[in-house]
Amino acid sequence: MDLLFEDVGYFDLTTLGLGIGDKKGLMTFAPKDEIILSGVDEVREILIKLDIKHTFFKKNSDKVEAQEVILECKSEASKLHKAWKISQNIFEYMSGIATYTNTLVKTAKEINPNISVSTTRKNFPGVKEMMLKAVMCGGGAPHRLGLYDSILVFDQHLVFLSDKEELERNFKKLKSEFIEKKVAVEVDSLSSARYFASLGADILQCEKMDYETLKNCVMLKKEFSNLLVSATGGINKDNIAEFAKCGVDFIVTSSPYHAKPLDIKVKIKEDN
What we know:
This protein has two domains: 3-103 and 260-270, Aldehyde Oxidoreductase, domain 3, CATH 3.90.1170; 112-258, TIM Barrel (Alpha-Beta Barrel), CATH 3.20.20.70. 33% of the residues are buried. It is elongated and about 75 Å long. It is built from ten helices and 13 strands. The protein is α/β, with parallel strands linked by helices. Helix 3 runs antiparallel to helix 4 and helix 4 (77-111) crosses helix 5 (128-137).
């Protein structure tokens, strides 16, 4: 995807029409409030493509204070105006995700320093890489990149294995064929959690469980020593602490993908 062409197209009619394209300018970017920065690589690529002289004062994952300058650019007005809005959008959306993720991570780790916060593959199509990079800038991790990198058994798979013997035979085959992969199973009750743990599931992904049931699933780790337990379903910054208190190894959430874009102020002035 050519992010620059998507916004600029063939012409900047306003700058062209005003006849200011050759004038020298200075452009700076700074957040209105404190943020965790993300989007540096993508913005740098745009600036290089436009041959704009630039200096980054911050890098991805940095905490940036309000009004602290992230980036300074010097070039002709025609180039600055091409870079302005697309760069601002990238910083605002990606830093919004990174900052929200960082809030989740800090809240959960205050309760359990070893817990991990991961995001689902419910990202907006076409911008997966940018969204996942933003999550990692905030201290989170990708739960699944896609169908190809991990194994997660859903009810939507199990509907094709209604025969218990066939299910157990195929589950064993899955484990042996992909011996290097951890096999995760989404469960919604203590009974199904215990059943799949007994079959050799490496990870129980507990979907929309109440806290008491989730705690009981975590207790299965005493019986199945290599078992990992995650919580997922409706987890956000307002309730993540309660899920972390249940003792799960990691939390899976889509909420960072819906984070509000943050306000990055852009100032442009003539630079004689």
